[in-house]
Write a structure and sequence with these properties.
7-stranded mixed sheet; Rossmann fold; about 210 residues; alpha/beta; globular; binds S-adenosylmethionine; 6 helices
């Protein structure tokens, strides 16, 4: 993987993704997450302090991320977490879990980076219980044509500097094509962030059948 992907990028990611405004975004998407939960692309564990833990909230958290560098940086937050977390160093394309195991699944700023999002989302649907919900907070393809053109132009550079992160993924399309039904979706721009990286999708999708 190399020093940049193992050490520098996890450090940079952790530093840039824990501001008060980003934390508020995390709280907003995580406040209704409950039951036995799977989080894909756990990163450095920045969502951990924002889960509502308890009998009516999160009962258990299973998390995965393929990067050992991210997992290493998550260690301190895992020790301080208000619940025990099972963390697997694995990509979302290979979920080693039984069918219909989880009440909820979570992905924040991760579907941009998953190498093969279609099988990852199909697997996620498989491990969700019927009626289970997928909570997502992602950046991706903008609605305005001129922004999309810049996203396409700059995507190769972004993929290099941000370890495979894509600027131009159609998150709504990817989630819908997985067979999950989107029941809530908000599109907006993150404030104080260039629009090509701050075009957001915040939503909830449900597994019907
Ligand atoms: C921008 S970071 C976001 C981390 C975290 N979700 C957050 O909100 O802070 C993207 C994360 O996706 C992870 N990732 C990359 N490929 C992945 C894959 N195939 N499956 C799951 N996670 C992946 C990266 O290792 C990284 O931790």
């Amino acid at each position: 993987m190399g020093f940049y992907a193992d050490c520098i990028f996890p450090w940079l990611m952790d530093l840039s993704m824990r501001s008060e405004s980003i934390s508020a975004e995390r709280r907003r998407v995580l406040r209704d997450v409950a039951g036995d939960v799977l989080e894909i692309g756990f990163g450095t564990g920045l969502n951990l302090p924002h889960y509502v833990v308890g009998p009516d909230g999160v009962r258990s958290l299973t998390a995965l991320d393929p990067s050992r560098g991210m997992a290493k940086r998550a260690a301190r937050r895992l020790r301080q977490a208000p619940l025990a977390v099972r963390l697997e160093v694995l990509p979302a394309e290979r979920l080693p879990f039984a069918d219909e195991q989880f009440d909820a699944a979570v992905s924040t700023w991760t579907l941009c980076s998953v190498a093969d999002p279609a099988p990852a989302l199909a697997g996620l649907r498989r491990v969700l219980k019927r009626g289970g919900r997928f909570f997502f907070l992602e950046h991706g393809r903008a609605q305005a044509e001129h922004l999309r053109r810049w996203q396409d132009r700059l995507n190769p550079l972004q993929r290099r500097i941000a370890c495979g992160c894509n600027l131009n993924r159609d998150i709504e399309g990817l989630v819908s094509q997985s067979g999950l039904r989107i029941i809530e979706l908000e599109r907006y721009f993150l404030p104080r962030v260039p629009k090509i990286v701050g075009s957001m999708y915040r939503g909830v999708a449900v597994r019907d059948g």
